[in-house]
Amino acid sequence: MPIRQITIIGTGLIGGSLALALKTHGFRGTIIGCDRDPVLAKAKRRQAIDRGISDPVKACQASQLVVLATPVGGILDLLGRLAPRLSPDTFLTDVGSTKQAIVECAVQAFGSQAHQRFLPGHPMAGKEHCGIEFADPHLFRDAAWFFTPLAGQDLGHGVGREYLAWIKKLGARTALLNPREHDQLCAWISHVPQILATALAASLVEVYGQRTALLESGGRALREMTRIAASPYSMWRDITLTNKKPIADALLRLEQELAHIRENLDTGALKEEFERAHRLTASHEKPRNRVKT
Hints:
By secondary structure, this protein is α/β, with parallel strands linked by helices. The protein has two domains: 5-177, Rossmann fold (3-Layer(aba) Sandwich), CATH 3.40.50; 182-285, 6-phosphogluconate dehydrogenase C-terminal like domain (6-phosphogluconate dehydrogenase C-terminal fold), CATH 1.10.3660. The protein has helices at residues 13-24, 37-45, 56-60, 72-82, 100-110, 114-117, 158-169, 179-208, 219-226, 233-242, 244-263, 269-285, and strands at 5-9, 30-34, 51-52, 65-68, 91-94, 118-119, 121-123, 144-147, 173-176. The strands form two sheets. Strands 3-2-1-4-5-6 form a six-stranded parallel β-sheet. Strands 7-8-9 form a three-stranded mixed β-sheet, with helices on one face. α4 (72-82) packs parallel to α5 (100-110). It is globular and about 65 Å long.
């Protein structure tokens, strides 16, 4: 049975962009938004949703698919609240930035039916600013969208299969990972870059204080390195809490690398570090293989 109604809980940047993208790419069913009333009013004005309902349980009624698009802490809370109150025919997915904690919560919430009820997902897309105001129907084009299926999960039929088809239709590149592999990978490619940008921006404010306008002379390089420092702590708090060890391990490795560079600013070892770094940029210039399920 095709998906006729989708509920998106959390109609901010990611949830709002998903709603707009679905409509842009031909979804003709109903999209229900669930959020605070002022956010829902903005989502309706942007025509991202057809109806807004602030109560999560009521918002999910009659929907074949429910997308949990809140920060990770909200997803964990919603899984426990919704699991005993939704129809067994309702299929859930999420867009959380960490997966191990969410998978464990889903298994606890749904028990032996978890693999039939919930598909963990994570679009690798975003902006430094959050909110429905910044939602973009093309946000997911050419972005990776990770899924971490539960043990024994069959994505070859039903709502799960149709949802994957829609994600590909939005232009995203889908890939399947196990939750631990996902969290370790994202610690390096997403979480640590955010922390580095935050640390650099905070250090610049501490050193230059009210003279931060002088930093504009740093040009594009500094702007690009600190752009995501504007990301909200409210989202990153949950990510660091649920992926603490992989992030800490990656930061320790990076601290050791920085210490090595600091100690070799005037030796040939610095040249070796530049040459090693160039291998990464060289790999980016090669044609990329599309990741797929």
